[in-house]
Amino acid sequence: MVMWVRVLGSAAGGGFPQWNCSCPQCRAARTGSRPCLPRTQSSIAVSADQQQWFLINASPDTQSHIESFPGVHPGDGSVVRPRAVLLTDAELDHTVGLLLLREGRGLEVHATASMYQTLTTGTGLLRTLESYCPVQWVPVVPGSEVMLAQGLSYSAFDVPTSKQMRFAGAAAEGRVVGYRFTDTTTGKSLIYLPCVQELTPDILGELSGSTALLVDGTFWRDDEMPDLGLSTRTSRDMGHVPIHGPRGSLGLLAPLAVDRKIYIHINNTNPILLHDSTERRCLDRHGMEVAVDGLELEI
To answer: What topology does CATH give the domain 4-298?
Structure first.
């Protein structure tokens, strides 16, 4: 058997280029002055049979993601696509797309209790969605193995974060999770971890033994946004470990014995978006890839 993975979107919030930004990367994307590809906001789809597909996060670009991928186009009436949505957090960048699925006959949402609380009493997004279609909440409990479909299971793991919350009320534990998807026939697995503040020994332990890794590549440097004058917050302040620098992800991930290590959730300010950048060449030398929209993996 094979586990199928489709990268629907590979950028961080706002996409690339971002509508209100004139950083060097966004200018290059608009003018064509340097080689780069536009990207939509991050999400992936996972399947064990290319019939039942599961979305991981539902970004504001969900409608274009579905239209760009025949695998999740409407079936003949007996096939429900997508089968469910699994959330890594309750951020708007990963949940607004749920509202775009309101025309369906119902939606299954896998989320931790913390996320569910945010989506009901914080943003109120799920309460709004329930006014349009039935919503079934499936609690995600880190450490528990869950069968999604024949031959496909997942296990979530908690990703601690000190990022300041915009919506009060949710517990700290379970605010952010990563997922390990496993082909139960072969034992091969994919880790999806688009948001992680620090690659602690516990997190690195979760990554070990995986076959492929789609991991947080939001920022190249911790001071990337302040240096460009776009924000006073650092990469870690925003909940993302930078790629380069002290305790950066590159030095910790490059040595891992994982077949494919791919950065995803890439911010528009990150120079790895430019194919001819020194930062991109650095990743190439270390065997690290950069996700693009439409990338497909067979695991």
So the answer is: Metallo-beta-lactamase; Chain A (3.60.15)
Q: What is the pLDDT of residues 238-277, one digit of tens each?
A: 999 999 999 999 999 999 999 999 999 999 999 999 999 9
List Cβ neighbours of 123 (8 Å cut-off, separation of 6 or more). Answer: 90, 92, 95, 167
With H, G, I as helix, E, B as strand and everything else as coil, classify residue 71.
helix
CA-to-CA dists, residue 252 to 157, 243, 249, angstroms: 19, 9, 5
Boundaries of every domain in the chain: 4-298
Helix (H) and strand (E) counts in the chain: 9, 14
Amino acid identity of residue 168, one-letter, is: A
Of 195, 260, 268, 279, residue with least CA distance to 38: 268
Distance CA(276)–CA(86), nearest Å, equals 35
For β-strands 212-216 and 189-193, DSSP reports them as: parallel
Q: Looking at the predicted structure, is the pLDDT value of residue 78 above 60? A: no
Length reported for the chain:
299
- DSSP class per residue in 164-229: PPSSTT--STTSSEEEEEEETTT--EEEEES--S---HHHHHHHTT-SEEEEE---SSTTHHHHTT
Give per-residue pLDDT as tens, 250-261. 999 999 999 999
The set of residues, in sequence order, having a beta carbon less than 8 Å from that of 95 and lying 6+ positions away, is 57, 58, 87, 119, 123, 125
